[in-house]
UniProtKB/TrEMBL annotation:
Substrate binds at residues 106-110, 185, 235, 267. Homodimer. Within each dimer, one monomer is responsible for RNA recognition and catalysis, while the other monomer binds to the replacement base PreQ1. Its EC number is 2.4.2.29. InterPro entries: ArchSynthase1/Queuine_TRR (IPR050076), TGT (IPR004803), TGT-like_sf (IPR036511), tRNA_ribo_trans-like (IPR002616). This is Queuine tRNA-ribosyltransferase. The gene is tgt. Its cofactor is Zn(2+). One of its GO terms (cellular component) is cytosol. Gene3D superfamilies: Queuine tRNA-ribosyltransferase-like. It comes from Propionimicrobium lymphophilum ACS-093-V-SCH5.
């Protein structure tokens, strides 16, 4: 076969795979192996976020060296800037950003719909009180409107009007070229009424069907490109019947023999309900497909989710808080700008195997933050990302070795102990 013939062949769903390699005694938590055209991911795994095709302030070589197996970028941000055509022309996300391993893109649904609710104001995970579908954050303009076919939104960059539909999201994500993509879903908040949640998950299911059909069409049309897996996204907020139904419906979604390659566990999840809600979904979803839980990185959440069968996670938090001088350690989080570190020449965390801790002191990193030097962000981010990636790696080992519960008790006991 000539190389021309090889490259003119369309990719197939068989180019993506997942196998479960060990299971916890509860039958839900597991370790596994995801295979993509750009490499394998041992799960559970923490996926480092590079929103705009860069992990802020850190070189891709360093991201690899700190142990990240894959990077997740944001379809919405890359759609606005520099645009999917340019990333496609560059050879896809991985090539464009010089990351050789597997890549993920989210659908853009979260960011688009967040504009409608006043981003980061009412999308809190622990909202209680009155439910109202029209609630928006005080002083915010509603910048996104949902209809049956898609969402109209105003660009936060320049105020221009745009429209995302399931087909647009698929087209954008195919051009971005990540190994794992997510179906376009409607994000609801815990403030939405149950009535609206019912309506919304029915719409998300119709959109999922359209995403799958468009995904198949684009895969067959874009011959010679590596296969990009598509994950359906489960919504349903805090309602057991809605979560279970949405999971079953997505698992059964099919378009001319094609099905979802995996699933995203989406939506606002209250911390105290996280394990319960992930359990409902894990019990309904097929065991032989991976599950990605969107947006968690706190140690207690990671243990809770791994225990009940979530396989991969992503979150901006380790790098975001690093840029605010917050440092994760096995003994909890602290702020490196505190004056008690002025003459502290020990590493950010004793015993940490990251590049920052091997080479720099608390006194130096504190100095960089106080002097507003850019290297402060880089060094703190490397440590926090390494902390999070390593923690999930250790969870994976503990599931394999049969000491998950001991490790969980010991690690969480130490991390959350009250300091006197
Ligand atoms: Zn470190």
């Amino acid at each position: 076969m000539t190389s021309f013939e090889a490259s003119s062949k369309p990719a197939s769903q068989e180019d993506f795979g997942f196998e479960v390699t060990a299971t916890l005694s509860n039958g839900l938590g597991r370790t596994g192996l995801i295979s993509t055209p750009h490499g394998k991911i041992e799960t559970p795994a923490f996926i480092v976020v590079g929103t705009k095709a860069t992990v802020k302030s850190v070189l891709p070589e360093t991201v690899r060296d700190l142990g990240a197996q894959a990077v997740l970028a944001n379809a919405f941000h890359l759609y606005l800037q520099p645009g999917p055509d340019l990333v496609d022309e560059a050879g896809g996300l991985g090539k464009f950003m010089n990351w050789q391993g597997p890549t993920f893109t989210d659908s853009g649904g979260f960011q688009v719909l967040s504009l409608g609710a006043g981003f980061k104001k009412v999308l809190a995970m622990d909202v209680t009180g009155m439910q109202n579908d029209e609630v928006i954050a005080e002083g915010k303009e509603r910048k996104a409107h949902v209809d049956e076919d898609g969402v109209n939104f105003k660009s936060p960059l320049d105020g221009s009007m745009h429209r995302f539909t399931p087909e647009v999201s698929m087209c954008v994500q195919h051009k971005l070229g990540a190994d794992i993509m997510f179906a376009f879903d409607e994000l609801t908040t815990l403030l939405n009424t149950r009535e609206y949640q019912v309506e919304s998950i029915a719409r998300t299911q119709r959109w999922a069907q359209r995403c799958l059909a468009e995904h198949k069409r684009l895969t067959l049309e874009r011959k010679g490109k590596p296969y990009q897996a598509l994950f359906g996204v489960v919504q349903g907020a805090q309602y057991e019947d809605l979560r279970r139904k949405a999971s079953r419906d997505l698992a059964a979604t099919e378009s001319d023999g094609w099905t979802f390659d995996g699933f995203g566990l989406g939506g606002a999840l209250e911390k105290h309900n996280l394990a319960k809600i992930v359990t409902w979904m894990a019990q309904e979803l097929p065991d032989n497909k991976p599950r990605h839980l969107l947006g968690i990185s706190e140690p207690d959440d990671l243990f809770a989710a791994c225990e009940v069968g979530a396989d991969t996670f992503d979150c901006v938090n380790p790098s975001r808080v690093a840029r605010n001088a917050a440092i994760y350690t096995a003994d909890g989080r602290y702020n490196i700008t505190n004056s008690r570190f002025r003459r502290d020449f020990s590493p950010l965390e004793e015993g940490c195997d990251c590049y920052t801790c091997a080479n720099y002191s608390r006194a130096y990193v504190r100095h960089l933050f106080k002097a507003k030097e850019m290297l402060a962000n880089t060094l703190a981010t490397i440590h926090n990302e390494r902390f999070t990636v390593r923690l999930v790696d250790q969870i994976r080992s503990s599931i394999r070795n049969g000491d998950f519960y001991e490790f969980k008790g010991e690690m969480l006991g130490r991390f959350y102990q009250k300091k006197s």
